[in-house]
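User: Could you check the structure of this?
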Amino acid sequence: MINEIIKFFSEHKIRTAVLVSIILVGGYYGYNYFFATATTTKYITQAAEKTTITTSVSGSGQAIELNSIELKPALGTSNTIVSKVEVKTGDMVKAGEVIAVLDQKNSLSSLNQARASLASAKANLTSTLAGATDLEIKIQQNSVAQAEQGYNNALASLELTKQSTSLSTSQAQKTLDDLLSLNPPSIKREAVLNSVQDRLTSAKTTLDAENKILTDDDKKYVIGVKNPVSLNNAQSYYSQAVALLNTAYNSLSVARQNESDANINVAVSDCLNVLYKILDSANNLYDALQGAVTTSAYTQSELDGDKSVASAAVSSMSSGISSIQTAKQNLVDAITNAQNSLDSAKLSATSQLNSAENQIKSSHSSWQSAKDQLEKLTKPATEQAIASARSQVISAQAALEQAQNNYDNTIITAPFDGQMAIMNVQVGDQVSGSTIIGALITTQKIATLSLNEVDASKIKVGDKVITTFDAVDGLSITGKVFQIDMLGTVSQGVVNYTVKVSFDTQDEQVKPNMSANCEIITTAKTDVVAVPNSAVKTDNSGNYYVQMLDANGSPFNKAVQTGIANESITEIISGLNEGDKVVTQTIITGGATQVPSQSSSNLRIPGLGGGFR
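Assistant: Sure, the predicted structure tokens are below.
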């Protein structure tokens, strides 16, 4: 049977082909008719509802003690031995309790000396009351002579200071004047114009090389075949550069005749305009050459050579732009430095002259004081002298009290009730003013965190805070902001402010330095109409609207006025009522899916108008 069928089809090939075609076409249209899927659009809606909406600022920090202190020896302490240690790590202590005692030999010696000084001051008071001796008068006469000599030396020093500061100021002024001089012009100004001259010469050479490529009859029909836009751009920029070149030469000529800042700036600007245009032309020429085709009249070797010319033009123009900018900046920096040097010389001169004049006043005062003292010695003790002697006694008494304080400072005590978090020393250890004897902490904890200037501006003292801890699952402690730093710290251009948060309750699970995550409630509104953020849209004018469905189920836009918003919902001030349903999502199902076409772009370096790819 099969053989008969095969034989039939072999003998009737045309009929067989027609039959197969009918089956295939019928199958195709039949499939599309019975199985094609229609496109449907579904809108997900949600009712606007009255709710409470809050906004917050989040930050991470650490749990710390409300009060903690590192116990150290008094400032100035050095190479002191610990003679006693009265507590250990973990001990609870009371305010005033002795923590440790340092070696007291030196402080005891100073205390004894202070006692002796007080005795001497008291003896001087007794002597003052008795009157001066011949020896004391002679000694004071010598003091008067020395003080007079000091005054004369101060006068001579003032004259020398006037001469030296005048010379320094004059030299700084001359340096600045030389840089600002136009006749003759300064070397720095000449350097800028010479750089412009060199780059304009290079620019002309480059334009000639480009022109040779662009006007070659064998090349102009094959360059840019695959990229005609780049070829047109190259020719356009070339023409612009040629026109600007004459302007740049004219500006250079004007600047050569009068090297003022204005003329130099114009010459530099016009030259840079030429170089940038050539750079744009060379970049586009290179792109056009990338799209060139080779022929027997325009070989691959010639094409590679032209690419090298375009590439060299880009490099030359880029280098030229940099060199001109550097030469111009060198002139600006030299003038700025010279002006700063002059200002510094004037400031230094004023400071030195003031110092010399103050020295004259001081030495004259010392001289007058010595004369007054001599006059007092030659007369019976006055009430003032007696008072002075008594003042010395008082001063010696104060020194004795200071020595007593230094002695007392060898005894390290607890400044408040707390727990010794750590005890770092033992008997025999050598310590200094920077040595941490131990650390005392309170049991009350707070959280401290750092916020950037944007977030810090949103919060205030008293704001409610919810704090969680990475190390304690499920623990959430409420509190409030109780301190915000008035001054921020700047790090890599970012300003941050330290914020401290108190806890409403103290939990023993919270340990010092645990990571703390704080959510600070900045705004809270109750009984407001709100919708999901996905429902709120903006038009081309920046106005807000939502979409609602009409009686036929078709969407239409409804203008609204929004209020505050958080990460999930937005307040609607006007335009909606509670219960109004808004579109939050549009779902399209069925039909063919078109994949959006993708566009590509080449990365360009700013100022280069193109580049190599």
